[in-house]
Design brief:
Layout: E1 4-14, E2 23-33, E3 38-42, H1 49-57, E4 64-71, E5 74-77, E6 88-91, H2 103-113, H3 118-131, H4 147-159, E7 165-169, H5 177-194, E8 197-202, H6 205-211, E9 214-219, E10 222-227, H7 229-234, H8 239-244, E11 249-259, E12 262-267, E13 270-275, E14 284-289, E15 294-298, E16 307-314, E17 318-325, E18 328-335, E19 344-349, E20 354-357
Parallel strand pairs: 3-8, 3-9, 6-7, 7-8
Antiparallel strand pairs: 1-2, 1-4, 4-5, 9-10, 11-12, 11-14, 12-13, 14-20, 15-19, 16-17, 16-19, 17-18
């Protein structure tokens, strides 16, 4: 069975500097990472995600709390266990490859430290390089490789030791946008093929949405929400999560009626339908609505208030409109090169496109 990880009330306080108060990098974080799961820690710079990853790796000792690994061998508290005995593999942002060693020597390094015999070591290195499609580059030096190739070598080096847990600290951040997209699928495929539990740190929400089984969104050292990519994108709990996980509209409205678990909400742009168990008629609410979940109709072919087309921007795969109603504006994304002929329109919110978020 792959390794499950339990993080229990984990905290990290860094000492005060020049009379300032001690800084809390991670505050009372608890979460469960399932066996074989590719779990993402995401948030803005300084939110504590890398500190949390390094406590799981054993590079930083927590101020309080526990880190527990569970597998077929049983339950192991690794909170203060040295990094080199946790059986974790780490892929760093800088790749950290030895420039004087060949590719195969870099990949073999961890096996040599573990005193694996030569024949077994050669086989494992060959298999690891084939896994990341880099077998033909075994005799080259890292300086003879592209950034994307170096990233794959770093991944092979982490995987070759057969780690219980693979830890990845923004491994794609030094690559160009096209290469990042190409390597997302490969990293996920490698992790799933090995049946390994992976924890991946990034600030790139598209990276997380396209690769993760589940995601924890962090802010100021605390977990704001945990869920699948679909849940965090379409059912954010707070305005911060809604905005951080992708472009969104935050709209104020009033609940006008309730039918089961669905609420009709009156906004300046028309009626939106949202699912929320705690809604009540007459309540003022804040909605998150993604730009692609809105449709525009010419006057006379839709319902609701008359809205103005304030501006349009062609983005290739879609055109983004800014729609105004009174003093409020709404961003709408329309697939392709579609454009409105008129300067006025009606807005339609797709069914269940709106999500009520806490007004905090």
């Amino acid at each position: 069975m792959p390794t499950a990880i339990a993080i229990e009330k984990l905290c990290k306080m860094f000492p005060s500097v020049a009379g300032a108060k001690p800084a809390a990098a991670v505050q009372d974080v608890s979460l469960e990472i399932r066996p074989g799961e590719l779990f993402f820690l995401i948030g803005p710079s300084g939110c504590g995600k890398t500190t949390l990853l390094r406590m799981i790796a054993g590079f930083i000792e927590p101020t309080s709390g526990r880190v527990v690994f569970r597998d077929d061998a049983g339950t192991r508290d690794v909170t203060f266990e040295p990094a080199n005995t946790r059986n974790t593999g780490m892929v760093f942002q800088s790749y950290a490859l030895w420039p004087h060693m060949t590719v195969e020597q870099n990949v073999a390094f961890g096996l040599e430290v573990r005193k694996v015999d030569g024949a077994t070591r050669a086989r494992k290195v060959r298999d690891a390089l084939e896994l990341v499609q880099m077998g033909e580059y075994a005799k080259r030096k890292p300086t003879q490789l592209s950034g994307g190739q170096q990233q794959r070598i770093a991944l092979a080096r982490a995987m070759v030791i057969g780690p219980a847990v693979l830890l990845l600290d923004e491994p794609l951040s030094n690559l160009d946008a096209k290469l990042r997209i190409e390597l997302r699928a490969q990293i996920r495929s490698v992790c799933k093929a090995a049946g390994i539990t992976g924890i991946y740190v990034t600030h790139d929400q598209k990276e997380a949405l396209s690769m993760a089984d589940r995601i924890a969104v962090l802010k100021a050292g605390q977990v704001c929400q945990i869920g699948t990519p679909h849940e965090l994108y379409y059912l954010p709990a707070t305005p911060f999560v809604a905005s951080f996980m992708g472009e969104t509209n935050l709209i104020r409205g009033t609940v006008t009626s309730i039918n089961g678990d669905r609420s009709s909400i009156s906004t300046d742009f028309g009626i939106a339908i949202a699912s929320h168990k705690d809604a009540r008629v007459g309540a003022a609410v804040l909605l998150s609505v993604r730009p692609e979940s809105i449709r525009l109709h010419p006057l006379g072919s839709g319902n609701g208030p008359t809205c103005r087309v304030h501006s349009s921007t062609f983005l290739g795969e879609n055109t983004q409109f800014e729609i105004a109603s009174g003093a409020n504006t709404l961003r709408v994304s329309v697939t392709g090169s579609s454009r409105l002929v008129a300067d006025e329109c009606h807005v339609e919110f797709l069914p269940d496109a709106a999500t009520i978020v806490s007004d905090q």
